[in-house]
Design a protein that fits this description.
It holds the Pfam family Barstar. This is Ribonuclease inhibitor. The chain is of the alpha/beta class and 129 residues long. It is 46% helix and 13% strand. It contains six helices and three strands; from the N terminus they run βααβααααβ. α2 runs parallel beside α6 and α4 packs antiparallel against α5.
Length: 129
């Protein structure tokens, strides 16, 4: 089983999350994925990057607790508020509903969304380290 290691110490915000993802998953590619959860999800399907098809992957995420905080509530709120600045691209009503859900504890943080995306790929076993 192939092992891929995310170094959580390299992640402080969404931008550095994607930098780390590109560092470990796109190592042998001459291009990088965009800062997009859809692109992250597509990459995990294995059509490009380090994952080849549906091969079994052991994804070891070091310092995950630190990233739960750094990609938590405030980062997520900032993420959605930034989207509001581009109403021609993002659905304002949807983004506002996500902002409203956050303080009520029913909305997912960016970190939780990432974990949910990983969990949707049954060939990937996430090891919290």
């Amino acid at each position: 089983m192939k092992k891929i290691i995310i170094e959580g110490k390299n992640i402080n915000n969404i931008e550095t999350f994607y930098e780390e993802v590109n560092r470990v998953f796109m190592l042998h590619e001459n291009w990088k994925i965009a800062q997009s959860l859809d692109a992250f999800n597509d990459m995990l399907y294995g059509s490009f990057g380090e994952i080849k098809g549906k091969e079994k992957i052991q994804l070891i995420w070091k310092d995950m607790e630190q990233n739960q905080k750094s990609l938590g509530f405030q980062t997520t709120l900032d993420f959605y508020q930034t989207k509001l600045k581009s109403p021609e691209i993002f659905n304002r009503k949807f983004v506002l509903s996500k902002i409203d859900e956050l303080p009520n504890g029913v909305g997912l943080t960016f970190f939780e969304i990432v974990l949910e995306i990983i969990a949707d790929h049954d060939n990937i076993i996430l090891i919290k380290n």
